[in-house]
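How a chain folds remains the central question behind the approach discussed here. In the encoding step, the backbone of a single protein was reduced to a row of integers, each denoting a local shape. We regard such an encoding as a compact summary of how the chain folds. The sequence in question and its structure tokens are set out directly beneath this paragraph:

___
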Amino acid sequence: MTMASGSLLVLKRTIKWMMLSAMMSGSFLAFAAADAFLPGPVINDYGKIAKVNSSLAIPQGMKFKVAFDLSTAAKPAELNRSIDTLARFINMHVASGVKLEDISLAMVVHGKAANDMTKDAFYQQLNAGQKNANQDLIAQLIKNRVKFYVCGQTAAYYGISSDDLLPGVEMALSALTAHAVLAHQGYSVNPF
């Protein structure tokens, strides 16, 4: 073995060791960070939150009216993380002193995400017999005054009728219409 090939071998081993160390410490940090998220005060099974020392004060008596947009479906039989965001929004703001009655949320659903708004009979036809994991979360959100509007144009494209939608999920003429009406009602659009 020449000196150059020996140095190259040492370099390769060092790089492998460094990569392995980085992956292991990254996994530990991800696990440690996940432990910081705990159930919230309103929707306990969803929308876990972390305590944050925020320097941006929420004005006393602030009323939140926020619309969310959803177009990406979850993987079959998995919870849609964007829907879980609504539970997290409620939990973190109530935990920070905002009254639940001062939080009005709406989600406008279009594209393939409309399937996550359907009852099992419809959902299973599209997802190899899997059950819709979003049902309980959506029911809990609706119980807490969250509105869900499915784009009627999307529904027509995918063959979804109002009867196929989960209880409390409503059909809108279109996602465009739903966002325009919600904006007229004073809802801001959450950018993510």
